[in-house]
């Protein structure tokens, strides 16, 4: 693991909406960044958000927070992109592609022009398709373009499993892979608590372990965004913490295994698409992907996700 470069870290956030500002707030609380800049198509909103965040300063670690423009992405360690349309009730993430690809064609070149050496962390949906688009538009090394991918779905999955297992979610080791969306894949073959398969853990602890329990947990994970959007119009707290966890892994060069979206090459014959797999993240971005031994149906599920994403990429004209 390389040494820490320095302890001043600048993060630029594009999109000062629900996700961008909740992430900014979480980042401020964490003390990880010394400087945060907010950039939005609506500069007045970005300015108001920066003012509000600045007034928390007597209670947190000193952090410079400003609203700015693309020239302010210069020297940012990470540019986090949350700009764009979000799902309306009943809309899938893939439905957003045309609107948000247009926005990416406008914003990614401006980021790269001002900050050719930083990392890009994409959260805008459909995140796998847009992380791929950001890689293509930017022409940067793929290791420096990361999509938040299934970090959120994995968190939801671990939370729901922990509720069933009556154990701390941090003690549940399990991943969701593939698309951040309807075709996402639970990696049951790797899921464990203290190294015990979930079924064995449940048997030993007199908990239900019938297939319907697991199916229900998977469905609740996959459909969580629809359920939340129906109730409150948007999701932003958990994803903000997911973005923060990715930020920490990068800035502190932690080599953390997280389910994030990255360029897939030669994984069970899957190539040239962004999707999520457990991936080692450090200061350079994607450090390496793990060669996982997966069950047949898991490989088939990830391949199906890849096909759906490739079709969307091709239909959107992303090259
Ligand atoms: P929001 O509408 O609250 O905020 C979007 C912001 O983007 C707005 O402030 C808007 O002014 C800004 N914007 C629009 N076009 C822009 C442009 N060209 N340049 C700069 N800024 C621009 O939406 P939100 O709830 O914050 O969601 C943002 C995105 O994040 C959506 O695509 C949503 O689907 C996605 N999202 C992703 C995850 C995930 O897990 N990856 C989770 C939740 C939401």
Strand order of the largest sheet: 3-2-1-4-5-6
How much of the residues is beta strand, in percent?
15-25%
Proportion of helical residues: 40-55%
Query: Which regions have little confidence, pLDDT < 50, spanning 5+ residues?
Result: 1-5
Given the structure, what is the number of helices?
10
- The radius of gyration is 19 Å
- Name the structural class: alpha/beta
Q: Tally of extended strands?
A: 14
Secondary structure layout:
Elements lengths: L9 E5 L3 H13 L4 E5 L3 H12 L9 E4 L10 E4 L15 H18 L4 E4 L4 H12 L6 E3 L3 H15 L6 E2 L2 E2 L7 E2 L5 E2 L2 E2 H7 L6 H12 L1 H9 L4 H15 L4 E9 L8 E10 L2 E5 L6 H20 L4
This protein binds nicotinamide-adenine-dinucleotide (NAD).
Can you describe this structure?
The longest helix is centred in the C-terminal third of the chain and has 20 residues, at 296-315. The chain is 42% helix and 18% strand. It has helices spanning 18-30, 43-54, 97-114, 127-138, 151-165, 198-204, 211-222, 224-232, 237-251, 296-315; strands spanning 10-14, 35-39, 64-67, 78-81, 119-122, 145-147, 172-173, 176-177, 185-186, 192-193, 196-197, 256-264, 273-282, 285-289. It is built from ten helices and 14 strands. By secondary structure, it is an alpha/beta fold. The strands form four sheets. The chain has a six-stranded parallel sheet with strand order 3-2-1-4-5-6, with helices on both faces. It has a three-stranded antiparallel sheet with strand order 7-10-11. Residues 1-5 have low confidence and may be disordered. It binds nicotinamide-adenine-dinucleotide. Residues 14-20, 40-42, 45, 82-87, 96, 100, 103, 106-107, 123-125, 127, 148, 152, 180, 234-236, 239 line the site of nicotinamide-adenine-dinucleotide.
């Amino acid at each position: 693991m390389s040494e820490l470069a320095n302890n001043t870290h600048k993060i630029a956030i594009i999109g000062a909406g629900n996700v961008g500002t909740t992430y900014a707030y979480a980042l401020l609380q964490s003390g990880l960044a010394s400087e945060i800049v907010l950039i939005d198509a609506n500069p007045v909103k970005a300015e108001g958000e920066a003012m509000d965040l600045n007034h928390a300063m007597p209670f947190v670690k000193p952090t410079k927070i400003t609203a700015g423009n693309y020239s302010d992405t210069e020297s940012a360690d990470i540019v986090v992109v949350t700009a764009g349309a979000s799902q309306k009730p009943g809309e899938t993430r893939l439905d957003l592609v045309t609107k948000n690809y247009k926005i990416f064609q406008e914003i990614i070149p401006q980021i790269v022009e001002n900050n050719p050496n930083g990392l890009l962390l994409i959260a805008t949906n459909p995140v796998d398709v847009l992380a791929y688009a950001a890689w293509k538009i930017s022409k940067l090394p793929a290791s420096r373009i990361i999509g938040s991918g299934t970090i959120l779905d994995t968190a939801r999955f671990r939370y729901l499993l922990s509720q069933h297992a009556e154990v701390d979610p941090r003690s549940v080791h399990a991943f969701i892979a593939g698309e951040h969306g309807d075709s996402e894949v639970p990696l049951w073959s790797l899921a464990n608590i203290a190294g015990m398969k979930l079924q064995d853990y449940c048997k030993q602890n007199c908990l239900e372990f019938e297939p319907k329990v697991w199916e229900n947990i998977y469905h609740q994970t996959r459909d969580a965004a629809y359920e939340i959007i129906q109730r409150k119009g948007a999701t932003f707290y958990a994803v903000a913490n997911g973005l923060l966890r990715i930020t920490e892994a990068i800035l502190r060069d932690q080599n953390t295994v997280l389910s994030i979206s990255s360029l897939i090459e030669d994984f069970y014959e899957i190539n040239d698409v962004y999707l999520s797999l457990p991936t080692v993240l450090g200061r350079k971005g994607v450090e390496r992907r793990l060669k996982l031994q997966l069950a047949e149906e898991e490989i088939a599920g990830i391949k199906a996700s890849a096909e759906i994403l490739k079709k969307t990429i091709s239909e959107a004209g992303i090259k």
